[in-house]
Amino acid sequence: LKKYSPIATLDRFSKATARSLNDLSGKLAVICDTDGILHAFGEGKREFEGQSLSEEMDRILRERRSYIANAAEGGDVIPITNSHEEGITAQVIVPIISGGDCLGAVAVLSKESGAKIDGGDVNLARLTADILANQFE
Prior knowledge:
Elements: H1 11-25, E1 28-32, E2 37-41, H2 55-63, E3 67-70, E4 90-98, E5 101-110, H3 119-134
Antiparallel strand pairs: 1-2, 1-5, 3-4, 4-5
């Protein structure tokens, strides 16, 4: 039996939102529910689509706090999925919170050597998470 996923009910909307996030950031954009990756757009998307979330990602969702890491600055880049994707050098993960419940997350990821997540990437991820969360209020 598959668990109900509010974010999955917005399939077309969340897919279009992920595509727009990729277009605006130029980085890999990922949208997930609390179980796995729903949509990924950008370079490397194939290794994410349909994958289950890692324990580290589960922890971030449970804590309901954003997470930013840049390997170039010594940050601890965590695996998003159980497949432990290779080569992520920078990331921002923003939980999608609605009515106090965590419904999933938005992530912006980079595989470029020396890449850094900047304020613009963080703001785009936060905006995307807010837009998705507001669909349930």
